[in-house]
Structure formats: structure tokens, C-alpha cells
Write a structure and sequence with these properties.
about 280 residues, Aldehyde Oxidoreductase, domain 3, 2 domains, six-stranded parallel β-sheet, 11 helices, about 45% helix
């Protein structure tokens, strides 16, 4: 998801907005102590154990401020790092290193935290057929970065946005007048290449969704017992996904129901950051 083409098509503009948020006119603190160009070097270090993610974005922050900035890496994207580990050394205009520090770290810490939490969750799915999905519960203007972090952590991306796929939730069903009617209307409107996913809250709705020909059935906030019954009822006629209050503590119980996918908003909205810092800035 995050590559040079993606950066050129959208990520750069988001990074520029983040920089503009932090530097509206000038970096007063830096300009007060650094009146002109001085070449310097600073170290990027991990302050906790986890999966490092977002190094391309971290680098891009400094490159957008000064394309001459150089970075030497000592850990690869997606690698597990330990507290105190040297991840990279950044060399360039000291003014750029100071002004870009917080924005670069904000991206790196947030993305690494998501990748770390995702990896921990995905580990619990090993050995099962169930795959881990993210959701649209992302930070505004951070979706491209947060969903990328989920992939680095071993998860799978659900639809990227509302234009990306049909998911008929409770309010869509209410607006249409029922499960079957909502599916019928979606089939009429959507191109044949799009699958129709529908959210159900009980076994009666599940039965209706199967009979109406849903491609994917999301079992929302159902008990493990009812989810198992729903999977048996569907009998492979549709893919199954469960959602709602998915936690590290209950995910193994959910896997036992036989669902194909587990979607968890917690991957992006509740993952703690992975603490990192820039240290030992010095002229070179």
C-alpha cells in the first residue's frame, strides 16, 4: 500500500499538512539557537520492544524539508526491535533535524504501535483458518499510514473507504426496509465485480442474508455460541466475518466458531504507540 507511487499520489500531501500543522510560519525555538546551516547527525533509537514500522514516512518528513537529508538504517521495516536499539542515523541540516523531529516521530511511533499490536493479535490466529482484518475506525487523514501498519504487522486490509466495497450495516438495512431488500438493491446498483457484504445481529437475520445471496456475512456482536450456529447455518454458502468487541482475551474463543475473518477496530483505534526518540544530536 505504501510505495513511491502511493507517496506521490497522496501521502506526500498528508505529510505536508502534518508539517504545516506543526510549523505555521517558523520554528521559533530552532531559529533562535541555529541562525544558519550547520551539518549535523542524530540517532533514532527504540525505547520499547516491538515492530518498527513507518521508516519510509519517517524519512519522507525530513526529505520534504530538505532533499539532501541522508539516513542510514540499522533495522529494516517490519523488524522486531528492542529497547535502546539504534534504528537509524539521520544526517543533514541541523535546523531540519530539529524542525522535523516531532512530526517524523509521531508517524513512526503511531505506525509502529499499530504494527506491534497487530502482530500480537495475529499470533493468536496462527494454526487456524481465520484471518485478521482491520476496519475504517482510523484517525482522520491517517488511514493510508495506519492500514499500511496493519499489513506490516501481519493483518489484512478490509475495504479502504466507502468507495471500495459494499458493506450493508444495520442502518443501511433499516433504510432499505430489511436484509433481503437491502441485498436486492445492492445487486441492482453495483457492478458485477463487487461483492455484497451484509452485517447481521442474530440468526434470523443470518438466515435471511444467506437466502438473499450475500457474498459475505458479518456476524456483529453475537455470542460465541450463536456465531458457531451461524457458521453452521451458512454452511460455506458465504464467507463469514465476525466483529464487535474483539480483544486479545476473547479472540481464541471466536476462532473456535469457525469464522473466516475477524475484524478488529482496536488494531487502529486502541493500539498504544511504540516509544522511539531522536538522541545525541551533534554537529559533524
Amino acid at each position: 500500500m505504501l510505495n513511491p507511487v502511493t507517496l506521490a499520489l497522496g501521502a506526500d500531501e498528508l505529510i505536508k499538512l502534518a508539517l504545516k500543522e506543526d510549523i505555521t510560519s517558523e520554528d521559533v525555538s530552532t531559529n533562535a539557537v541555529m541562525r544558519g546551516y550547520v551539518k549535523g547527525k542524530v540517532e533514532l533509537k527504540a525505547k520499547a520492544e516491538g515492530i518498527i514500522c513507518g521508516l519510509p514516512v519517517f524519512e519522507r518528513v525530513f526529505k520534504l524539508l530538505d532533499s539532501q537529508t541522508e539516513i542510514e538504517y540499522f533495522a529494516e521495516e517490519g523488524a522486531r526491535v528492542k529497547s535502546g536499539q539504534l534504528i537509524a542515523e539521520i544526517t543533514g541540516d541541523i535546523r531540519v533535524l530539529l524542525s522535523g523531529e516531532r512530526t517524523a516521530l509521531n508517524y513512526l511511533q503511531r505506525m509502529s504501535g499499530i504494527a506491534t499490536y497487530t502482530a500480537k493479535t495475529a499470533e493468536l490466529l496462527k494454526g487456524s483458518k481465520t484471518r485478521l482484518l482491520d476496519t475504517r475506525k482510523t484517525t482522520p487523514n491517517m488511514r493510508i499510514f495506519e492500514k499500511y501498519a496493519v499489513k506490516v504487522g501481519g493483518g489484512v486490509n478490509h475495504r479502504y473507504n466507502l468507495s471500495d466495497g459494499i458493506l450493508l450495516k444495520d442502518n443501511h438495512i433499516g433504510a432499505a426496509g430489511g436484509v433481503a431488500k437491502a441485498i436486492e438493491m445492492a445487486r441492482e446498483y453495483s457492478p458485477f465485480v463487487r461483492k455484497v457484504e451484509v452485517e447481521v445481529e442474530n440468526l434470523e437475520m443470518c438466515r435471511e442474508a444467506v437466502e438473499a445471496g450475500a457474498d459475505i456475512i458479518m456476524l456483529d456482536n453475537m455470542s460465541a455460541e450463536d456465531m458457531k450456529k451461524a457458521v453452521e447455518l451458512i454452511g460455506g454458502r458465504a464467507l463469514t466475518e465476525c466483529s464487535g468487541n474483539i480483544t486479545l482475551e476473547n479472540i481464541k474463543t471466536i476462532i473456535a466458531t469457525g469464522v473466516d475473518f475477524v475484524s478488529s477496530g482496536a488494531l487502529t483505534h486502541s493500539a498504544p504507540i511504540l516509544d522511539c526518540s531522536l538522541k545525541n544530536l551533534r554537529p559533524v
